[in-house]
Amino acid sequence: MAGALAGKVVIVTGASRGLGAAIAELLCRAGARLVIADIERERAHDRAAVLTDAGMAAIALPLDVGDEAQVRH
Fold first, then answer.
1. Residues paired with 71 in a beta bridge
2. Could you give the angle at the alpha carbon of 9 between the alpha carbons of 38 and 25, nearest 5°?
């Protein structure tokens, strides 16, 4: 599966821990550039750092998907 998503940007909400974090890592391993969108700002940054330290492309985006204004922004 490596490289199947090369050049694609993927946004994963709730990716700072648990199932979301596992999905995020799999997508990165498939070559995706990842946006970790999570209400937990510090955890999102920590998870992005773990992935980038492993050579994958990930950034954190603090986001509450329950807040329509944040989602639109």
1. none
2. 60
Cβ atoms within 10 Å, residue 37: 22
- 6-34: per-residue pLDDT in tens? 989 999 999 999 999 999 999 999 999 99
C-alpha 52/C-alpha 22 separation (Å) is: 15
Do 63 and 38 form a contact (C-beta atoms < 8 A)?
Answer: yes
DSSP type of residue 17: S
| CA 64/CA 30 separation, integer angstroms | 26
Environment class of 44 (CB within 10 Å of its CB; exposed 0-12, middle 13-18, buried 19+): buried
The model's pLDDT over 34-66, given as tens digits with 9 standing for 90+, comes to 999 999 999 999 999 999 999 999 999 999 999
